[in-house]
Amino acid sequence: MKKTLPLALIFLCSVSVAFAQVIRGDAKVGQGVYEQQCLRCHGAKLDGKGPDSQDLIVQPADLRSQTTRSKTDWELLVAISNGVLFSPMHSFRGKLTDQQMLDVLSYIRSTAPPDITS
Asked: How far apart are CA 5 and CA 98, in angstroms?
């Protein structure tokens, strides 16, 4: 028993790593999706100053800010998919495919200033 437990744990870890898939978005495709779905609120410069943002009480997030950039990919994907409570950010679930959300995320990340990305 003492030998089988560590071996089982090693096996489970190696299997989960082997099956873990990194799915990446396409920034170029994401730019097109962003322009169609996000630009009106977040703006062409991703600064939260899109044409529709003037009418909002709570302003859209500045996607260039350190606050937004410091969020994990998962946090940003959850915000895109589910929306953000008490903000103008609505859910895109059912409007965008999972791949389109990954593409938009990739585009947003690709515009990060060099001093913020790692």
From this structure: 38
Q: Which CATH architecture has domain 23-110?
A: Orthogonal Bundle (1.10)
**Angular region, 46: left φ>0, alpha ψ -120 to 50, beta rest:** left
| Residue 25 predicted with pLDDT over 50 | yes
Nearest to 41 by CA among 18, 19, 57: 57
In the DSSP assignment, the letter for residue 64 is: T
Q: Using an 8 Å Cβ cutoff, are 60 and 46 in contact?
A: no
99-111 average pLDDT score: 97
Spatial distance between the Cα atoms of 63 and 47, rounded to a whole number of angstroms: 6
Query: Closest Cα partner for 59 from 32, 74, 33, 41?
Result: 41
